[in-house]
Amino acid sequence: MRWQQKAFSSLKFITLDEVDSTNIEARRLADRGEYGPLWVRANSQTGGRGRRGREWVSKSGNLYCSGLYTHEGSAHDAAKFSFVAALAVTETLKTYIAEDKIKLKWPNDVLVDGKKISGILLEGGKDWIVVGIGINLLSHPKNTESTATHLLGHIDPSLLSGPEPILTGPDTVLATLSSRFNYWREMYLEKGFNPIRQAWLGWADNIPGAVIVRLTNEKFSGHALGLDENGALRVRLENGTIRDVHAGDVFFGDQGA
Ligand code: BTN
Question: Is any atom of ligand 1 closer than 6 Å to the C-beta of 141?
Fold first, then answer.
Protein backbone atom coordinates (compact mmCIF):
# COMPACT_ATOMS: atom_id res chain seq x y z
CA MET A 1 0.00 0.00 0.00
CA ARG A 2 1.55 3.31 -1.11
CA TRP A 3 0.42 5.25 1.97
CA GLN A 4 2.02 2.81 4.42
CA GLN A 5 5.26 2.68 2.48
CA LYS A 6 5.47 6.48 2.64
CA ALA A 7 5.70 6.50 6.43
CA PHE A 8 9.03 4.65 6.34
CA SER A 9 10.63 6.35 3.41
CA SER A 10 12.86 9.42 3.49
CA LEU A 11 12.83 12.42 1.19
CA LYS A 12 14.41 11.86 -2.23
CA PHE A 13 15.62 14.47 -4.75
CA ILE A 14 16.05 14.25 -8.51
CA THR A 15 17.83 17.05 -10.39
CA LEU A 16 17.48 17.44 -14.15
CA ASP A 17 19.17 19.90 -16.44
CA GLU A 18 16.12 20.47 -18.63
CA VAL A 19 12.63 19.01 -18.68
CA ASP A 20 9.27 19.91 -20.19
CA SER A 21 7.77 20.53 -16.74
CA THR A 22 8.77 19.21 -13.33
CA ASN A 23 5.05 18.70 -12.61
CA ILE A 24 4.73 16.49 -15.68
CA GLU A 25 7.93 14.62 -14.76
CA ALA A 26 6.64 13.99 -11.23
CA ARG A 27 3.35 12.75 -12.70
CA ARG A 28 5.28 10.39 -15.04
CA LEU A 29 7.12 9.04 -12.00
CA ALA A 30 3.82 8.54 -10.16
CA ASP A 31 2.43 6.69 -13.19
CA ARG A 32 5.46 4.39 -13.01
CA GLY A 33 4.73 3.54 -9.37
CA GLU A 34 6.88 6.09 -7.54
CA TYR A 35 5.10 7.21 -4.39
CA GLY A 36 7.45 9.82 -2.95
CA PRO A 37 8.13 11.78 -0.95
CA LEU A 38 10.26 13.00 -3.79
CA TRP A 39 11.25 16.40 -5.18
CA VAL A 40 12.11 16.86 -8.85
CA ARG A 41 14.07 20.00 -9.71
CA ALA A 42 15.11 21.20 -13.15
CA ASN A 43 17.50 23.97 -14.14
CA SER A 44 15.08 24.97 -16.88
CA GLN A 45 11.71 23.92 -18.26
CA THR A 46 10.72 23.94 -21.91
CA GLY A 47 6.99 23.78 -21.13
CA GLY A 48 6.65 25.30 -17.67
CA ARG A 49 2.98 25.45 -16.71
CA GLY A 50 1.18 28.05 -14.67
CA ARG A 51 -2.35 28.18 -13.30
CA ARG A 52 -5.32 28.43 -15.67
CA GLY A 53 -3.33 27.06 -18.61
CA ARG A 54 -0.83 29.92 -18.57
CA GLU A 55 2.84 29.47 -19.42
CA TRP A 56 5.46 29.70 -16.65
CA VAL A 57 8.57 31.15 -18.24
CA SER A 58 11.42 28.94 -16.99
CA LYS A 59 14.87 30.30 -17.82
CA SER A 60 17.79 28.82 -15.92
CA GLY A 61 18.81 30.42 -12.60
CA ASN A 62 15.42 30.22 -10.89
CA LEU A 63 13.90 27.39 -8.88
CA TYR A 64 11.52 25.04 -10.69
CA CYS A 65 10.52 22.05 -8.60
CA SER A 66 7.71 19.63 -7.87
CA GLY A 67 7.09 17.52 -4.79
CA LEU A 68 5.41 14.16 -5.21
CA TYR A 69 3.56 12.90 -2.14
CA THR A 70 0.96 10.26 -1.45
CA HIS A 71 -2.47 11.65 -0.69
CA GLU A 72 -5.27 9.90 1.07
CA GLY A 73 -8.42 11.94 0.91
CA SER A 74 -10.65 13.98 -1.35
CA ALA A 75 -9.65 16.43 -4.07
CA HIS A 76 -11.01 19.10 -1.74
CA ASP A 77 -8.46 18.09 0.87
CA ALA A 78 -5.70 17.91 -1.73
CA ALA A 79 -6.32 21.57 -2.59
CA LYS A 80 -5.27 22.51 0.94
CA PHE A 81 -1.69 21.57 0.09
CA SER A 82 -1.38 24.73 -1.98
CA PHE A 83 -1.71 26.66 1.31
CA VAL A 84 0.89 24.34 2.85
CA ALA A 85 3.16 25.13 -0.10
CA ALA A 86 2.58 28.88 0.18
CA LEU A 87 3.64 28.78 3.83
CA ALA A 88 6.75 26.81 2.90
CA VAL A 89 7.64 29.43 0.28
CA THR A 90 7.19 32.39 2.66
CA GLU A 91 9.30 30.72 5.33
CA THR A 92 12.00 29.95 2.78
CA LEU A 93 12.04 33.55 1.53
CA LYS A 94 12.26 34.94 5.04
CA THR A 95 15.66 33.29 5.45
CA TYR A 96 16.89 35.70 2.74
CA ILE A 97 14.89 38.90 3.13
CA ALA A 98 12.97 40.87 5.74
CA GLU A 99 9.67 39.28 6.71
CA ASP A 100 7.66 42.45 6.27
CA LYS A 101 8.40 42.46 2.52
CA ILE A 102 6.63 39.10 2.05
CA LYS A 103 2.86 38.72 1.70
CA LEU A 104 0.47 36.02 0.55
CA LYS A 105 -2.30 36.73 -1.89
CA TRP A 106 -5.21 34.33 -2.07
CA PRO A 107 -5.19 31.61 -3.17
CA ASN A 108 -1.47 30.96 -3.41
CA ASP A 109 0.59 33.78 -4.85
CA VAL A 110 3.62 34.87 -2.89
CA LEU A 111 4.45 38.56 -3.23
CA VAL A 112 7.57 40.50 -2.31
CA ASP A 113 7.04 44.26 -2.09
CA GLY A 114 3.68 43.64 -3.77
CA LYS A 115 5.11 41.81 -6.79
CA LYS A 116 4.75 38.13 -7.63
CA ILE A 117 7.90 36.13 -6.86
CA SER A 118 6.54 32.60 -6.81
CA GLY A 119 3.78 30.47 -8.28
CA ILE A 120 2.28 27.21 -7.05
CA LEU A 121 0.54 24.65 -9.24
CA LEU A 122 -1.07 21.73 -7.46
CA GLU A 123 -2.10 18.64 -9.39
CA GLY A 124 -3.19 15.23 -8.25
CA GLY A 125 -4.17 11.69 -9.10
CA LYS A 126 -6.01 8.94 -7.30
CA ASP A 127 -3.67 8.65 -4.34
CA TRP A 128 -0.93 11.20 -4.94
CA ILE A 129 -0.42 14.93 -5.29
CA VAL A 130 2.19 16.93 -7.14
CA VAL A 131 2.93 20.34 -5.73
CA GLY A 132 4.78 22.41 -8.33
CA ILE A 133 6.60 25.50 -7.11
CA GLY A 134 8.47 28.13 -9.07
CA ILE A 135 10.48 30.82 -7.28
CA ASN A 136 12.12 33.64 -9.21
CA LEU A 137 15.65 33.76 -7.80
CA LEU A 138 17.84 35.54 -10.34
CA SER A 139 15.36 36.90 -12.89
CA HIS A 140 11.69 37.37 -13.59
CA PRO A 141 9.77 37.49 -16.86
CA LYS A 142 8.59 40.84 -18.18
CA ASN A 143 5.07 41.58 -19.40
CA THR A 144 3.33 39.12 -17.10
CA GLU A 145 -0.28 39.63 -16.04
CA SER A 146 0.78 40.37 -12.47
CA THR A 147 3.97 42.39 -12.03
CA ALA A 148 6.80 40.02 -11.10
CA THR A 149 10.03 40.29 -9.18
CA HIS A 150 12.99 38.10 -8.19
CA LEU A 151 14.75 37.35 -4.93
CA LEU A 152 18.26 38.55 -5.76
CA GLY A 153 17.04 42.12 -6.20
CA HIS A 154 15.77 42.19 -2.61
CA ILE A 155 18.79 40.75 -0.79
CA ASP A 156 21.19 43.05 0.98
CA PRO A 157 24.26 43.05 -1.37
CA SER A 158 26.64 42.62 1.59
CA LEU A 159 25.13 39.18 2.18
CA LEU A 160 25.82 37.98 -1.36
CA SER A 161 29.61 37.83 -1.16
CA GLY A 162 32.19 36.85 1.42
CA PRO A 163 32.99 33.36 2.71
CA GLU A 164 29.36 32.37 3.22
CA PRO A 165 27.12 34.04 0.61
CA ILE A 166 23.47 33.41 1.46
CA LEU A 167 22.11 32.75 -2.03
CA THR A 168 24.13 29.91 -3.53
CA GLY A 169 21.64 28.48 -5.99
CA PRO A 170 18.35 26.64 -6.41
CA ASP A 171 19.46 23.48 -4.55
CA THR A 172 19.94 25.26 -1.23
CA VAL A 173 16.62 27.06 -1.66
CA LEU A 174 14.95 23.71 -2.36
CA ALA A 175 16.53 22.16 0.76
CA THR A 176 14.79 24.77 2.95
CA LEU A 177 11.60 24.73 0.91
CA SER A 178 11.13 20.95 1.03
CA SER A 179 11.86 20.86 4.74
CA ARG A 180 9.32 23.65 5.49
CA PHE A 181 6.81 21.92 3.23
CA ASN A 182 7.25 18.70 5.20
CA TYR A 183 6.85 20.57 8.48
CA TRP A 184 3.51 22.14 7.47
CA ARG A 185 2.34 18.95 5.76
CA GLU A 186 2.92 16.99 8.98
CA MET A 187 1.08 19.73 10.87
CA TYR A 188 -1.87 19.40 8.50
CA LEU A 189 -1.92 15.59 8.73
CA GLU A 190 -1.80 15.69 12.54
CA LYS A 191 -3.92 18.74 13.38
CA GLY A 192 -6.01 19.50 10.32
CA PHE A 193 -6.35 22.66 8.26
CA ASN A 194 -6.93 25.16 11.06
CA PRO A 195 -3.25 25.77 12.00
CA ILE A 196 -2.44 26.11 8.30
CA ARG A 197 -5.25 28.62 7.81
CA GLN A 198 -4.17 30.65 10.85
CA ALA A 199 -0.52 30.72 9.78
CA TRP A 200 -1.51 31.58 6.20
CA LEU A 201 -3.71 34.47 7.38
CA GLY A 202 -0.76 35.78 9.37
CA TRP A 203 1.02 36.42 6.05
CA ALA A 204 -2.05 37.54 4.11
CA ASP A 205 -2.23 40.92 2.46
CA ASN A 206 -5.51 42.83 2.66
CA ILE A 207 -7.58 40.22 4.48
CA PRO A 208 -9.77 41.62 5.88
CA GLY A 209 -10.06 44.25 3.19
CA ALA A 210 -11.69 45.42 -0.03
CA VAL A 211 -11.60 42.93 -2.87
CA ILE A 212 -12.65 42.54 -6.49
CA VAL A 213 -13.28 38.95 -7.59
CA ARG A 214 -13.13 38.01 -11.24
CA LEU A 215 -14.53 34.58 -12.08
CA THR A 216 -14.82 33.08 -15.57
CA ASN A 217 -18.16 34.74 -16.30
CA GLU A 218 -18.58 37.12 -13.45
CA LYS A 219 -16.96 39.99 -11.59
CA PHE A 220 -18.02 41.44 -8.25
CA SER A 221 -16.63 43.51 -5.43
CA GLY A 222 -16.93 43.11 -1.69
CA HIS A 223 -14.99 42.82 1.51
CA ALA A 224 -12.71 39.80 2.05
CA LEU A 225 -13.35 38.51 5.57
CA GLY A 226 -11.08 35.45 5.81
CA LEU A 227 -10.80 31.83 4.71
CA ASP A 228 -13.43 29.17 5.30
CA GLU A 229 -12.54 25.72 6.65
CA ASN A 230 -11.59 24.56 3.12
CA GLY A 231 -9.50 27.57 2.17
CA ALA A 232 -12.19 29.35 0.12
CA LEU A 233 -12.10 33.15 0.34
CA ARG A 234 -15.08 34.42 2.35
CA VAL A 235 -16.38 37.66 0.84
CA ARG A 236 -19.14 39.94 2.14
CA LEU A 237 -20.88 41.43 -0.87
CA GLU A 238 -22.15 45.00 -1.01
CA ASN A 239 -25.71 43.78 -0.32
CA GLY A 240 -24.51 42.10 2.88
CA THR A 241 -24.65 38.46 1.74
CA ILE A 242 -21.64 36.22 2.31
CA ARG A 243 -20.12 34.35 -0.60
CA ASP A 244 -17.32 31.79 -0.48
CA VAL A 245 -15.07 32.00 -3.54
CA HIS A 246 -13.35 28.76 -4.52
CA ALA A 247 -11.46 29.81 -7.61
CA GLY A 248 -10.84 32.88 -9.65
CA ASP A 249 -8.61 35.85 -9.89
CA VAL A 250 -8.81 38.17 -6.94
CA PHE A 251 -7.68 41.77 -6.85
CA PHE A 252 -7.34 43.58 -3.58
CA GLY A 253 -7.88 47.27 -2.95
CA ASP A 254 -8.46 49.11 -6.20
CA GLN A 255 -6.34 46.83 -8.44
CA GLY A 256 -8.21 45.29 -11.37
CA ALA A 257 -11.09 47.78 -11.16
C1 BTN B 1 1.18 30.09 -11.28
O2 BTN B 1 0.64 30.28 -12.39
O3 BTN B 1 1.23 30.99 -10.44
C4 BTN B 1 1.75 28.74 -10.95
C5 BTN B 1 3.10 28.54 -11.52
C6 BTN B 1 3.76 27.23 -11.12
C7 BTN B 1 5.12 27.06 -11.77
C8 BTN B 1 5.85 25.83 -11.28
S9 BTN B 1 7.53 25.80 -11.83
C10 BTN B 1 7.69 24.16 -11.28
C11 BTN B 1 6.40 23.45 -11.65
N12 BTN B 1 6.45 22.96 -13.00
C13 BTN B 1 5.56 23.57 -13.79
O14 BTN B 1 5.41 23.34 -15.00
N15 BTN B 1 4.87 24.47 -13.09
C16 BTN B 1 5.27 24.50 -11.70
Answer: no
Specify the residue with its C-alpha closest to ligand 1, atom 11.
Answer: 132
> What is the reported pTM?
0.91
**Which residues in 113-208 belong to E strands, given as ranges?**
115-124, 128-135
| CA dist 142 → 28, 105, 145 (Å) | 31, 20, 9
How far apart (Å, rounded) are the C-alpha atoms in residues 29 and 81?
20
Mutate to test the pocket of ligand 1, among 15, 18, 49 (most ligand atoms within 8 A of CB): 49
Are both 3-202 and 209-252 of the same fold? Answer: no
Q: What's the pLDDT at 237?
A: 94
pLDDT at 249: 63
In degrees, rounded to 5, the angle at the alpha carbon of residue 244 between the alpha carbons of residues 191 and 242 is 120
What are the boundaries of each domain within the chain?
A: 3-202, 209-252
Q: What are phi and psi of 99, to 5 degrees?
A: -55, -35
Q: According to the model, what pLDDT value does residue 74 have?
A: 84
Mean pLDDT by 10 residues, the chain (257 residues): 46 96 96 93 97 92 97 86 96 96 93 96 89 96 90 89 81 96 96 96 92 86 93 93 81 54
Q: Which CATH architecture has domain 209-252?
A: Roll (2.30)
Q: Which CATH number fits domain 3-202: 3.90.640.10, 3.30.930.10, 3.40.190.290, 2.40.50.140?
A: 3.30.930.10
CA–centroid distance, residue 45 to ligand 1 (Å): 10
CA–CA distance, 251 with 219 (Å, rounded to integer) = 11
